[in-house]
Structure prediction request, 59 residues.
Amino acid sequence: MSDAEYRKYECVICGYIYDEALGIPDDGIPPGTRWEDLPDTWECPDCGISKSDFDLMED
Prediction:
């Protein structure tokens, strides 16, 4: 999986985009952190919705 392109996921509620390539360093999530490596308890940093309420962004 580490050789695959980084993906982006969008919050269906507020539109926040989690970019695997960028991570969220201010929240302790380093760049390159894959979506599946985020804990299931992770929440949108903008609106607090659960990880399950994000959709994979297609190119």
Remarks:
- The CA atoms of residues 26 and 45 lie 11 Å apart.
- The mean pLDDT is 94.
- The longest strand covers residues 8-11.
